[in-house]
From TrEMBL:
Descriptive protein name: ATP-binding cassette subfamily C protein CydD
Cross-referenced Pfam families: ABC_membrane, ABC_tran
Gene3D superfamilies xrefs: ABC transporter type 1, transmembrane domain, P-loop containing nucleotide triphosphate hydrolases
Compartments, record wording: Cell membrane
PANTHER family referenced in this protein's UniProt entry, alphabetically: ATP-BINDING CASSETTE SUB-FAMILY B, COMPONENT LINKED WITH THE ASSEMBLY OF CYTOCHROME' TRANSPORT TRANSMEMBRANE ATP-BINDING PROTEIN ABC TRANSPORTER CYDD-RELATED
Length: 573
């Protein structure tokens, strides 16, 4: 499978050539790209056999059943072969499309996970990309590409067979082909623009809907339901109008195709009939017999069959090109995680179990597009096994400093050292760090599943210990009707519905304690807790920090009190 570079998703405003190249690379992600087209070409060969069998059988009728039988067998075999090759072509095309889509979806997910901090791409845009836009490539790879390849050769096979039986009938087919191609080119040009607009409307609706669903509590809190519903209604109407436009062009082009296909068959039929009856009003250089006439007539509809197939898949091409423009414009992963051990500092490798020391050396962080640095000239050490607390006013860069260690904030100057070894650009300590963020991530699922995010192999005993240490026992007992195990099976939605803010923080802390990592990073772990709960949680945090190198960002004086060293970040300028 062809490897795709991150730049495959990175460029903006692609030229037609760049778009073609991108689609080609994606399509080749599936194996044996030409197999489906080869099967379709074989269908035309079988069609010639089928027509030959029919013509032979008709001619052989006066000679009796024994003479007819071989021709009938040819008809049956060719007919069976046609069914088989079309099935194989469909299966091969579908498999190729599936492979390509899986590859592309992996890349988009990687792009979403490692997108530039502060990138404008919203979750809705990414969802539209990973679902609708990738799906739009399906018909292009499964149907259009094989049909286009077969369409470039198969009609000429039919034309050649027809010409061998009747050059004049072959001439009729060629003559009807020219206006057909002109009509299809005109319809195709109109369809391209309409399809592009339809797809943009679809992506806008999907993205907007997904983003608003995510922000539903905010929408409800500000009473903006009507406004948002109205905006969604406008987007849906726009999509409906664009879809009707696309359908109109599709009907027009299929009407043109059917007209010329019927015209060519009718002309060939009239010609063959009049030729057989010697009634043609003009001289022709051939005299047909029944067999040749029947053969040509049976073959005439097959001349347009590959083009019919191509026309049926033409909308897939338009949709894929529009989707490609949007997919190409997606941001490339800004700072890929270190993919392999060489990018991981030695101090964090499993064969070096000692607790690591962290050091910030003249560190500056600046987000893309920001006028000033979020953090500049930051210098401090976190000795092995010690607790360092970052404190300072809101916006002074505490979270950014922690995010830098996880590859989530961009370093523009200075170095982060782990046991004296430089963290590579865009590198992350995530594999060796436990993390409890300011806004704990909750996934839709049980509390147990949320805990296992940090450590998928955690035993039930380890989970029980972590939740008890984090002070979640009373809540779990209440939820589980007196049984903690049942409480752990309580389902949460993706917003942590059913948990208070403090419980969410405790859950995040339990998760951090569950992961046996030598580094602990905590961002505002006691925010929004009352004094008693904070005191209880500080005790838990002290236990969690034991045997780990810990960095805590906080405004809390109680947490400052447990620090071995305090770093005060300055006021934001
Ligand atoms: N993803 C981002 N893109 C652009 N700017 C950002 C981003 N994240 C943070 N900033 C900016 O960086 C500065 C530092 O923010 P940060 O969240 O690190 O501060 P903080 O000290 O943790 O604040 P708080 O105590 O309120 O959590 C702020 O000016 C903030 O607006």
């Amino acid at each position: 499978m062809t490897a795709l570079s991150s730049s495959d998703l990175a460029s903006t405003d692609p030229t037609p050539r760049a778009r073609r190249q991108w689609l080609k690379t994606i399509a080749q992600g599936g194996r044996r790209g030409d197999a489906a087209a080869a099967w379709l070409m074989l269908d035309s060969v079988a069609a010639i056999g089928f027509a030959g069998g029919l013509a032979g059988a008709i001619v052989a009728v006066p000679a009796g059943a024994a003479a007819v039988l071989p021709w009938v067998m040819l008809v049956v075999l060719s007919g069976g072969l046609r069914g088989l090759v079309v099935m194989l072509a469909t299966r091969r095309g579908a498999r190729q499309a599936e492979n390509a889509k899986v590859t592309l979806r992996r890349r988009i997910v990687a792009s979403a996970l490692h997108r530039d901090p502060g990138a404008p791409t919203t979750t809705g845009v990414l969802m539209a990309a990973v679902v609708d836009e990738v799906d739009a490539l399906d018909g292009y790879i499964a149907r259009f590409l094989p049909a286009r390849k077969a369409g470039a050769i198969a009609p000429f096979l039919i034309l050649l067979a027809t010409a061998l039986a009747s050059p004049v009938a072959a001439g009729i087919l060629v003559v009807t082909l020219i206006p057909f191609i002109v009509a299809m080119a005109l319809a195709g040009g109109a369809a391209a623009e309409k399809s592009r607009r339809q797809f943009t409307a679809l992506a806008r609706l999907t993205g907007r809907f997904a983003d608003r669903v995510r922000a539903l509590p905010v929408v409800l809190a500000f009473g903006a339901e009507d406004r948002e519903a109205h905006a969604l209604g406008i987007a849906a109407d726009e999509l409906a109008a664009r879809t009707m436009g696309v359908l109109r062009v599709a009907f027009l082009s299929s009407g043109a195709l059917e007209f010329f296909a019927a015209l060519s068959v009718a002309l060939v039929a009239v010609y063959c009939g009049f030729n057989l009856l010697h009634l043609l009003p003009f001289p022709v250089p051939e005299q047909l017999d029944l067999g040749r006439a029947f053969f040509v007539l049976a073959l005439a509809p097959e001349f347009y069959a590959p083009m019919r197939r191509l026309a049926a898949a033409y909308h897939d091409k338009q949709a894929a090109e529009t989707a490609a423009d949007r997919l190409i414009a997606l941001p490339a992963p800004a700072s890929p995680m270190p993919a392999s051990l060489p990018a991981t500092p030695h101090a964090l490798r499993p064969d070096m179990p000692v607790l690591p020391a962290l050091a910030f050396r003249s560190v500056a962080i600046r987000y893309p597009g920001a006028e000033r640095c979020a953090v500049s000239d930051l210098m401090f050490d976190v000795p092995p096994g010690r607790i360092v607390v970052l404190t300072g006013p809101s916006g002074s860069g505490k979270t950014s400093a922690l995010h830098l260690l996880l590859g989530l904030a961009p370093l523009v100057a200075g170095d982060v050292l782990i046991d004296g070894e430089r963290l590579p650009p865009g590198g992350s300590l995530a594999p060796s760090a436990s993390w409890a963020g300011q806004h704990p991530l909750i996934i839709a699922g049980t509390i147990r599943e949320n805990l296992r995010l940090a450590c998928p192999d955690a035993t039930d005993d380890a989970i029980d210990r972590a939740v008890v240490q984090a002070g979640l026992r009373p809540m779990l007992m209440a939820r589980g009707g007196g049984r903690m195990a049942a409480g752990l099976d309580t389902r949460l939605d993706a917003r942590g519905g059913g948990l208070s803010g403090g419980e969410r923080r405790r859950l995040a802390l339990a998760r951090a304690m569950l992961k046996p990592a030598p580094i602990l990073l905590l961002d505002e772990p006691t925010a929004h807790l009352d004094a008693l709960s904070e005191i209880a949680l500080v005790t838990t945090i002290v236990a969690a920090c034991r045997g780990r190198t810990t960095l805590i960002a906080t405004h809390s004086d109680r947490l400052v009190g447990i620090a071995d060293h305090v770093v005060r970040l300055g006021d934001p300028a």
